[in-house]
Every structure is written in structure tokens, then in C-alpha cells.
Design the sequence.
């Protein structure tokens, strides 16, 4: 398994489990790069705020788990909310490529309201382009106090340079 994961990382493949099937898919999906002008601030929202049981956001949360640091994860990707200018749909795999070269593998779990974003609906009023969906009961106290997920891990304090949205969705597989 380590060899497969190494190959995936080295060749920029996406490893995404197709839910509802017992097989794993290994494919190279197409993607769209969106250049960001975000600052290094990365906010968070509590997953319990997603209450509409008929929404894709709620359905995705049923496939998620909370890690030991309080982050919601789906297919081992961090679940985030983004502005509508990113496009795509809930469940789409995205990578946050930071200015320092760090890559944070994510999945779209929600969209920020347009009234809470800039004129092109990419960044929030606070300059944040990715709002991490978390369990606030588990989230570290210092992150809750400062409101900045960028403090969670070394290297995450760097601004997001590019958001890469893949044509693969954890709720429905590859898009045609």
C-alpha cells in the first residue's frame, strides 16, 4: 500500500474512494486552477451548522469523520467551505496550494454566501478563501480563540496561492 500511495503523491494522481462501491479508483482527473489573492488567514465553521437533511452538504457530512484535531475529513481530505466563484459542487475534490509549496488536500463541503465574499465570490471579507469545517468540541482551544486554522500545523500559515478544483466528486465519482 505504501508504494501505491507514494506513486500517487509523486505523480499528482488523486486517490479517491468511490462511496457505495467496494473498489478504489485511481485516475488522473482533469482540473481547473484558480489563482487566489487570499491572505494567510483560514477560518472555520462548526459542521453542526449544516442542518438541512436533504442538502448535499448534509449528505456529505454523513460520510465524514472528525480527526483528533477536530477537522472534518472525507476520503482523508479536509472538508472546507469556499466561495461560489470557485464553481463546482459539494463533494468536489480540491487542493489548496500554498505560497510556500504546501498542498492541503480538501473536498468542498459547503459554499459561503455571496454576501460574505468579495466581488468575485472567491474570498471572504476577512481575506480567507477556505473555511475549514470542524467539530468545535474537539478543535484546539488556541485555534478557537484566534479563529485561524492556519495555526493548526507547521506550514499552514502561508497564503493560498492556487485553488485546484478537480473534476472528481466524492459523492459521485468522475465527472464526464
Sequence:
Amino acid at each position: 500500500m505504501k508504494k501505491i500511495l507514494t506513486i500517487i503523491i509523486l505523480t499528482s494522481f488523486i486517490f479517491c474512494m468511490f462511496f457505495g462501491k467496494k473498489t478504489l479508483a485511481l485516475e488522473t482527473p482533469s482540473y481547473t486552477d484558480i489563482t487566489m489573492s487570499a491572505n494567510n488567514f483560514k477560518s472555520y465553521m462548526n459542521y453542526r451548522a449544516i442542518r438541512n437533511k436533504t442538502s448535499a452538504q448534509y449528505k456529505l457530512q454523513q460520510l465524514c469523520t472528525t480527526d483528533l484535531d477536530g477537522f472534518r475529513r472525507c476520503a482523508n481530505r479536509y472538508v472546507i467551505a469556499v466561495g461560489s466563484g470557485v464553481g463546482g459542487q459539494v463533494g468536489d475534490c480540491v487542493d489548496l496550494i500554498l505560497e510556500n509549496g504546501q498542498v492541503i488536500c480538501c473536498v468542498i463541503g459547503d459554499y459561503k454566501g455571496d454576501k460574505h465574499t468579495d466581488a468575485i465570490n472567491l474570498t471572504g471579507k476577512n481575506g480567507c478563501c477556505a473555511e475549514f469545517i470542524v467539530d468545535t468540541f474537539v478543535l484546539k482551544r488556541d485555534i478557537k480563540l484566534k479563529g485561524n486554522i492556519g495555526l493548526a500545523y507547521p506550514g499552514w500559515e502561508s497564503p493560498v496561492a492556487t485553488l485546484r478544483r478537480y473534476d472528481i466528486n466524492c459523492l459521485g465519482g468522475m465527472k464526464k
Notes: DSSP finds three helices and twelve strands in the chain.
